[in-house]
Amino acid sequence: MQRAYATALYEILKKDRNVISCLSDSGTDYDELIAREFPDQVVNFGISENNQLSAAAGMAAAGKIPFVYTTGAFIVYRSYEFLRDDVCLQNRNVKLIGMGTGLAWSTLGATHHTTEDLALLRALPNLTVFTPATPRELTGAVQAAYETRGPVYIRMGMSGEEELFDETYTFTPGKILPVREGKDLTVFTAGSILSEVMKAARLLELEGISARVVNVHTVKPLDSEGILRECKGPGLFFSVEEHNVLGGIGTAIADVCGSAGLPLRLTKIGLRDSFAEGFGTKKDVLRQNCLDAEHIFLRISEVVKNGLSVQI
Questions:
Q1: 165: burial class by Cβ within 10 Å (0-12, 13-18, 19+)?
Q2: Shortest CA distance to 200 belongs to which of 289, 305, 296?
Q3: Full-model pTM
Q4: Same domain, 10 and 103
Q5: How many domains does the chain have?
Q6: Domain span at residue 248?
């Protein structure tokens, strides 16, 4: 994902000298190479995310287009006041890249996990929120962020995400994307956990259960029409996310359906009002928190077997 981001940003920097890459000692070798070629378009603020955001808001006020790249937990939690007041309240044209979101920082524990960011950011006016699942989708999200006037947050993974889309894929902001056909149930998901959901869907297929998978790569603005279209008719519905089930995509989907008066049997799969437990590789931590493919499969199978849905 980091390579995909750096490559996409490099192409934008080449064609628009107003674009500025803002780092906080969290860059990669790619960023160092970019800085050598575009020394006037790269600024490293060090571990000073609050200053980084405030300065980016100032740059945007002067007509620049800053791309602020740093650890997701820091840009959202540590700098929330600056994001709210300096960027969103002023509707500044700042692009925020939350790197290593969800459980990607698996060896560093809950202080570095980003599992409540969607709940916080969905509430901020003027902010667009993208949750790309793969490197190719991230590339499209970076370009869409550049083309979007106003603040944008990209929730980016950092765990060697596999590519699930071919070269014909086109990122369409604000539209959900069905990525697997199925007739028995529908699973909505967002971000890097899409790969685990796809594996779970294949396990369900072996049990004779056909699962439709829908990728919600734009959390705000949410594709309400698309959500309602997917949720019409009988059936079981699930949301799977690397996030607290309170305030995440499951909550957003339930809000859309509730506002439209559409009854929905929705089971939310994610962290159940808790912080993540355990340490290890990303796969280890997903497993320890029942968010790997096997546990997702078991949870969906249980609901299908019992014919009921549990919702928080």
A1: middle
A2: 296
A3: 0.94
A4: yes
A5: 2
A6: 177-306
